[in-house]
């Protein structure tokens, strides 16, 4: 079932597909398969197709203060900050100079490879923490945030700002239950067996499996069995949720999208059995084997595949994988799915039900919402053709394979909450995708799960420590410099007609920034009310997971026929990331990213503009990337472009498609179409940040810039500051997965691709024409 209800919907399911654009990809893009690596686990694991969207067990705020800005008012605010900024940057020594220099590889010519020049030594000396197949500056900040959160969660009591908080008590109990290894080992497989009994057993298990009822083939009912699993938070065959209607974004609407494959990329399925598919089948077979052991029987990981029950289980799992491969063949292609104007399909429930009679959609919807859903109700089905073909596939597939597959989708998300042997088989599986044979420590897994589930509780603890009104004010000021730079640049956009330009300006002015965190989280009454429907035990991590799933269901039901709450946040306060939402027309920067090296008072402002300034410009430019441009200032999907301007835009972006497609990772080319939106945002973001910095300098002095020994100019430091927030390491496996699954280009190309398109970069570093960072052909959209 869809958990995008939790995060507001279509912009989230499209997140995978490009509408809500983040600054950074997954925390560890190399391990996206089923999400069994814990550094990102909750997202991937529970709902592979909708990883950012669904698993975050957080609700949006209902009554927070609105962070909208009146431009005139902001001018006053900027004025009050002048002294603060000037003073700070005059007197503070450059305490970060050493770390900036030590990351650089000064033996490399910046005009040849700027990323290597700025990050070479960082990459050469990086110590990747256990469990990660990709690591970078984002990870370092995230890890620092986690250390702080751990300390805060370990504090005694349940008081926040002097008040008792039930939500805080629940969050702490959730964490402690997760850490309770003794209880988890003692419970063994019993909690999963109990779940399977609720679902009527599992067809793949041998008869007379201890503790699990035998599956009864005669009682199989596709609609009913599918619905039971969606009610429990799985999403076999498709996903369903409530999200803004893209053509009327203040109204929520039921949406159905394709889902239900175990991999995040259909390319990993093949007619010839691949290593990935075989690893996936082996994983399932081991789970089946562990479940079917006699009460007095145990196995160790090394011997598991030689057990007599393993081979038959493997055969059955291979059928499931083959079925998923068949699903992947009818998936709408990812680059099409990501285009909202090409996939906007509004039909009635009856019209939808008629194209997929193999499933009783009326029954399904009535059960999911616990109320009668009218056949005349309008819904959105962006992947409409998928459902047409799914009906045929379901007709052709035997009952037993369907039954095996459905219940596998209920089993998968729970494996993380079982004893260590399950964790070991998960690691063996995920290493095929990640190239990493280690897992993150338990405390980190539990912390991340807690942060995902109670993101506004942990967020409240976090912001109390790190966010000051001054930080909020200063970063808000930066956003306005960026917004002004975009608007100030519009007269130079020669390929756009005046009417379209005017509409673009209106949209840019209308973009709402949200900074830091929603204010309501500091009010324990509101925080407690927000989490009141979630039950947490101090003893069972498995039961807690089930309760979180139920809470999501209640949340979905609560969204029905409610207006969209545009105050909601779709990221937790401690996250090191940022996003643009097209239906909200907003840019959001959680406090997790408002820290060094993105923003740091002890750095020259040139580096801050290169760091957080570029991220802000990146998010703003998403409003005008190849998909963001299809939404108007009110967040509605509407064509506001003159024909000639639209054609010119396409030509401009084609240049970037070609440029990025020419980059290679190993022997694979970057997908210039898949990554286009992010590349437009990177290029626009860097340019806006540079222009904003020049504007800032007209008022302020940035005297702290000369790094010891380097003697770099402020403008050079701007680019160094930009590049170094993207220093990154990935295993080859992880890098290869990223090409398939991550809409962001690899960091090396994010840096070199953007600087090589900027003439001013070559001026600043004296790059001769024709060098790699100063090619004769340059691409520019904004
Ligand atoms: Zn982005």
Question: Can you summarize this structure?
Answer:
The chain has 782 residues and is of the alpha+beta class. It contains 34 helices and 14 strands. Helix 12 (222-231) runs parallel beside helix 18 (361-369), helix 14 crosses helix 20 (399-411) and helix 24 packs across helix 30.
CATH topology of the largest domain: Collagenase (Catalytic Domain)
Name given to the CATH architecture of the largest domain: 3-Layer(aba) Sandwich
Rg, Cα atoms, Å? 26 Å
Number of domains: 3
Structural class assignment: alpha+beta
The averaged pLDDT comes out at 87
- CATH top level of the largest domain is Alpha Beta
Give an account of the 3D structure.
51% of the residues lie in helices and 7% in strands. By secondary structure, the chain is of the alpha+beta class. The protein folds into three domains: 58-88; 104-153 and 445-765, 3-Layer(aba) Sandwich (Collagenase (Catalytic Domain)); 204-418, Neutral endopeptidase , domain2 (Neutral endopeptidase, domain 2), CATH 1.10.1380. Strands 1-10-11-9 form a four-stranded mixed beta sheet, with helices on one face. Strands 2-14 form a two-stranded antiparallel sheet. A hairpin with a 2-residue loop joins strand 3 and strand 4 (163-164). Helix 30 (676-697) crosses helix 33 (747-755). The protein starts with a helix and ends in a 17-residue tail after the last helix. Residues 1-20 and 26-92 have low confidence and may be disordered. It binds zinc ion. Zinc ion binds at residues 21-23, 618, 622, 678, 681.
């Amino acid at each position: 079932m869809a958990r995008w209800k939790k995060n507001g919907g279509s912009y989230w399911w499209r997140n995978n597909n490009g509408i809500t654009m983040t600054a950074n990809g997954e925390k560890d893009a190399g391990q996206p398969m089923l999400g069994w690596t814990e550094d990102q686990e909750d997202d991937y694991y529970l709902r592979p197709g909708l990883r950012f969207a669904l698993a975050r067990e957080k609700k949006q705020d209902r009554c927070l203060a609105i962070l909208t800005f009146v431009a005139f008012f902001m001018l006053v605010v900027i004025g009050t900050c002048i002294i603060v900024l000037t003073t700070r940057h005059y007197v503070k020594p450059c305490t970060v100079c050493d770390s900036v220099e030590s990351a650089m590889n000064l033996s490399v010519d910046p005009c040849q490879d700027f990323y290597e020049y700025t990050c070479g030594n960082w990459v050469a000396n990086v110590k990747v923490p256990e469990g990660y197949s990709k690591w970078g500056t984002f990870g370092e900040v995230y890890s620092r945030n986690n250390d702080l959160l751990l300390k805060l969660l370990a504090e005694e009591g349940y008081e926040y700002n002097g008040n008792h908080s039930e939500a805080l008590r629940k969050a702490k109990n959730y964490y402690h239950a997760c850490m309770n290894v003794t209880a988890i080992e003692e419970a063994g497989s019993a909690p999963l067996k109990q779940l399977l009994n609720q679902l009527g057993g599992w067809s793949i298990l041998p008869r007379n499996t201890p503790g699990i009822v035998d599956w009864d083939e005669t009682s199989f009912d596709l609609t009913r069995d599918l619905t039971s699993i969606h009610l429990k938070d799985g999403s076999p065959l498709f996903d369903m949720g409530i999200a803004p209607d893209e053509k009327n974004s203040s109204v929520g609407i039921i949406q159905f999208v394709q889902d239900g494959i175990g991999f995040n990329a259909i390319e990993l399925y093949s007619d010839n059995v691949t290593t990935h598919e075989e690893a996936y089948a082996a994983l399932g077979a081991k789970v089946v084997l562990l479940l079917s052991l006699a009460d007095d029987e145990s196995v160790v990981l090394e011997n598991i595949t030689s057990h007599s029950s393993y081979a038959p289980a493997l055969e059955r799992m291979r059928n499931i994988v083959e079925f998923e491969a068949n699903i992947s063949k009818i998936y709408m292609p990812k680059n099409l799915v990501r285009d909202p104007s090409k996939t906007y399909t509004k039909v009635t429930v009856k019209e939808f039900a008629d194209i997929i009679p193999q499933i009783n959609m009326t029954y399904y919807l009535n059960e999911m919402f616990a109320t009668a859903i009218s056949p005349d109700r309008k819904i959105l089905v962006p992947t409409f053709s998928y459902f047409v073909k799914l009906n045929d596939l379901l007709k052709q597939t035997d009952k037993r394979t369907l039954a095996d597959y459905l219940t596998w989708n209920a089993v998968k998300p729970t494996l993380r909450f079982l004893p260590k042997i399950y964790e070991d088989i998960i690691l063996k599986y995920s290493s095929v995708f990640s190239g990493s044979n280690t897992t993150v420590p338990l405390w980190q897994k539990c912390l991340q799960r807690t942060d995902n589930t109670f993101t506004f509780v942990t967020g409240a603890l976090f912001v109390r420590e790190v966010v000051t009104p001054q930080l909020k004010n200063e970063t808000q000021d930066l956003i306005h410099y960026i917004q002004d730079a975009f608007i100030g640049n519009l007269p130079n956009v020669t390929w756009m007609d005046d009417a379209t330009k005017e509409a673009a300006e209106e949209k840019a002015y209308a973009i709402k920034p949200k900074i830091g965190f929603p204010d309501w989280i500091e009010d324990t009454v509101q925080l407690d009310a927000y989490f009141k429907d979630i039950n947490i035990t101090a003893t069972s991590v498995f039961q807690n997971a089930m309760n979180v799933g139920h809470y999501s269901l209640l949340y979905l039901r609560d969204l029905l026929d409610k207006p969209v709450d545009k105050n909601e946040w779709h990221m937790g306060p401690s996250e090191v990331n940022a996003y643009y939402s097209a239906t909200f027309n907003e840019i959001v920067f959680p406090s997790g990213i408002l820290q060094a090296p993105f923003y740091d008072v002890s750095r020259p402002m040139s580096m801050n503009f290169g760091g957080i300034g570029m991220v802000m410009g990146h998010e703003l430019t998403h409003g005008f990337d190849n998909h963001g441009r299809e939404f108007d200032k009110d967040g509605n999907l509407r064509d506001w472009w003159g024909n000639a301007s639209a054609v010119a835009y396409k030509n401009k972006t084609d240049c970037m498609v070609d440029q990025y497609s020419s980059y290679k990772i190993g022997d694979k080319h970057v997908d210039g179409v898949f990554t286009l939106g992010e590349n437009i945002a990177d290029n626009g973001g860097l340019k806006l940040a540079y222009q904003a910095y020049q504007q800032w300098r007209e008022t302020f002095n940035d005297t702290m810039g000369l790094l010891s020994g380097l003697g770099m100019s402020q403008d050079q430091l701007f680019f160094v500051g930009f590049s170094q927030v993207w220093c990154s390491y990935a295993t080859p496996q992880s890098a290869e997965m990223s090409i398939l699954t991550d809409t962001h280009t690899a960091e090396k190309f994010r840096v070199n691709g953007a600087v090589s398109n900027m003439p001013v970069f070559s001026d600043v570093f004296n790059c001769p024409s024709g060098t790699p960072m100063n090619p004769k052909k340059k691409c520019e959209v904004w």
